[in-house]
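In the current project phase, the collection of sequences with tokenised folds has grown. A representative record is quoted in full directly below:
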Amino acid sequence: MRDDIESERRRVRRAAVAIAAVCRERGKTAIPALILDLTTHGSRLTISHAPKVGSYVWLKLPQLEARYSRVAWVKGGVVGLAFEEPLHVAVLDKIAGRCGAGGHRASFTLS
């Protein structure tokens, strides 16, 4: 499985971003997260309470529907998520244009 993730990492464009988001496991409270990079197939983020590898979470990005995602790996407070349904490349391009390195940081608040 790790080889699949490594292979995916090389096949798709990875956009460096800084996006405040929220991550929630089923039946648990949403936790603020900071997305560090984003691809059409997943993301890398920091979070204070990392879910377990193999678990599923909802990742809510500003102005988008929540993405149902599998926790692919965890290293300290950094988590790799694999989206169940990929983002459209045009959506990724728009997000990267607004929130990419050198751009502004998108904000998101828990409500």
